[in-house]
Specification:
acyltransferase activity, transferring groups other than amino-acyl groups; globular; alpha+beta; 27% helix; 9-stranded mixed beta sheet; GNAT family N-acetyltransferase; GNAT_dom; 30% strand; 14 strands; Acyl_CoA_acyltransferase
Length: 281
């Protein structure tokens, strides 16, 4: 696995366009709009790409038959050289990569949710396999969804550079954009405020000429009150006004996101293996 220089990121563009799953987070790295890293099997004529987004997501795509790359990949998946500082969530394309990963990891691939027979859990680092769901936006379903109402003493505002730096949590704009200026120039979001306090935000985790992928964060004290629905609806309305397709994807175990997507008119279309790569201790 060779790390590409940023001047060579263009080599990853055309192969990425052939990836048939949600790839927007990887596109943001490939296009240089988010910090990240890209690894390949060869520096001159790469045929395999491994894109790591700073949020902790990664995408592996391209040829599955490069033996040297696959050996290095196995070492990376199991963090044999202790290069990861945090967990990483990996998606792969095409589906043949799932067979390769099963073969290279064997018993070190743990299916989350399945009972492991006594004595069969291997010692040392493992890779967990979860599920990720891609949704399709159904405009007609959305248009008949219940309209959200801004509660008293709250304000719905566009997310600006000042809010960019204030919003805290796990899924927030500063984890997806280089800085507030970059977000103000190309990003989009709506925030619900109570006084000066942040309540909830729906924002563009990534946006291109045709699509906008939605990220959501609700302050812990305000969760479960429908605020995520409200700000998401405001952002989707803006997407429709601008001619952008709203995009949603989430881990299947995230029941809140999974249910919210369907309330907003999204329809589950594809369930994929989703690998959690842990770090060595």
């Amino acid at each position: 696995m060779y790390k590409l220089e940023k001047r060579d990121y263009a080599k990853a563009v055309k192969p990425l366009q052939e990836v048939g799953i949600n790839r927007l987070f990887a596109e943001s790295v490939v296009r240089g709009e988010a910090e990240g890293e890209i690894y390949a099997d060869d520096l001159a004529r790469p045929e395999v790409f491994y894109v790591v987004h700073p949020y902790g997501m990664s995408l592996l795509y391209g040829s599955t038959e490069k033996e040297n790359f696959n050996r290095a990949l196995r070492a990376y998946l199991l963090d044999e050289y202790r290069v990861r500082t945090a967990d990483e969530w990996l998606q792969v394309y095409p589906d043949a990569w799932n067979g390769q990963i099963r073969g290279m990891l064997g018993e070190k691939l743990i299916h989350v949710g399945e009972a492991q027979p006594a004595g069969t859990v291997p010692a040392g680092p493992c890779v967990e396999i979860h599920e990720r769901v891609n949704f399709a936006f159904d405009r007609e379903r959305y248009l008949v969804a219940t309209a959200a109402v801004v509660p008293e003493e709250h304000r719905l505002v566009k997310t600006n550079g000042a809010l960019f730096d204030q919003i805290e949590g796990s899924v927030v704009p500063k984890h997806f954009w280089r800085n507030a200026a970059a977000f103000e120039q190309a990003g989009l979001g709506y925030s619900l405020l109570r006084g000066a306090a942040h309540v909830a935000t729906a924002f563009s985790a990534y946006r291109n000429e045709r699509q906008l992928e939605i990220g959501i964060e609700t302050a812990e004290a305000s969760q479960g009150k429908g605020y995520a629905y409200l700000v998401s609806q405001a952002l989707i309305d803006e997407c429709l006004r601008l001619g952008l397709e709203p995009v949603w994807a989430c881990r299947r175990g995230n029941e809140g996101s999974y249910r919210l997507a369907q309330k907003l008119g999204f329809v589950p279309t594809l369930t994929l293996p989703y690998y959690r790569l842990t770090t060595r201790v």
